[in-house]
Amino acid sequence: MDRSQKTEAVAQLNEVFNEAGVVVVTRNLGLTVAQSTDLRSKMREAGASYKVAKNRLAKLALKDTQYEDLSDLLTGPTALGYSEDPVAAAKAAVEFAKTNDKLEIVGGAMGGQLLDEAGVKSLASMPSLDELRGTLVGLINAPATKIARVVNEPASKLARVFGAYGAKEAA
């Protein structure tokens, strides 16, 4: 990798750190290519990305971002999971680490808050942004359906009474 490629890699990583809602640092302890590909696809499905970057370049990219404290975690064979959704990357990484002992969660950060392994796992247990939106829409929609049911109930009772009288006279 020559100097221009390194500069470009640092610029790309810096852009990632400026846009990300959460960054998860993982340690690869001998993942095969197939396992790494599987992890990347699971991250993509969750709306996150996974990147193996040189620690030195990542530390340079972290400067002057809200994730600057992550540089202490970048030792050994590490990789970064990141997403704009504050839960997606953590959830995907923790789910994959449960089934594969070759991936270790080192820590992470959400905004300016540095997280240890337990913090990342507790973040992963929270509902995602889309799940929260769905819950809110359901809560907002519930009173409207109850009102519609209350308004329609007297009319349906009348219809049943008229139907019963009609059936009684027909018999």
UniProtKB/TrEMBL annotation:
Which UniProt keywords are given for this protein, alphabetically ordered? Answer: Ribonucleoprotein, Ribosomal protein, RNA-binding, rRNA-binding
Give GO cellular component annotations, separated by semicolons.
large ribosomal subunit
Q: Where are the transmembrane segments?
A: none
According to the UniProt entry, its GO molecular function terms are: large ribosomal subunit rRNA binding; structural constituent of ribosome
According to the record, the signal peptide region is none
SUPFAM superfamilies linked:
Ribosomal protein L10-like (SSF160369)
What GO terms in the biological process aspect are recorded for it? translation
**Superkingdom of the organism of origin:** Bacteria
Presence of keyword Hydrolase: no
Q: Which InterPro entries match?
A: Ribosomal_uL10 (IPR001790), Ribosomal_uL10-like_sf (IPR043141), Ribosomal_uL10_bac (IPR022973), Ribosomal_uL10_bac_type (IPR047865), Ribosomal_uL10_CS_bac (IPR002363)
User: So what family is this one in?
Assistant: Belongs to the universal ribosomal protein uL10 family.
Q: Which PANTHER family match?
A: 39S RIBOSOMAL PROTEIN L10, MITOCHONDRIAL
Q: Report quaternary structure and partners.
A: Part of the ribosomal stalk of the 50S ribosomal subunit. The N-terminus interacts with L11 and the large rRNA to form the base of the stalk. The C-terminus forms an elongated spine to which L12 dimers bind in a sequential fashion forming a multimeric L10(L12)X complex.
Q: HAMAP family annotated for this entry?
A: Ribosomal_uL10 (MF_00362)
Its annotated function is as follows: Forms part of the ribosomal stalk, playing a central role in the interaction of the ribosome with GTP-bound translation factors.
State the name under which the record lists this protein: Large ribosomal subunit protein uL10
**What is the gene name?**
rplJ
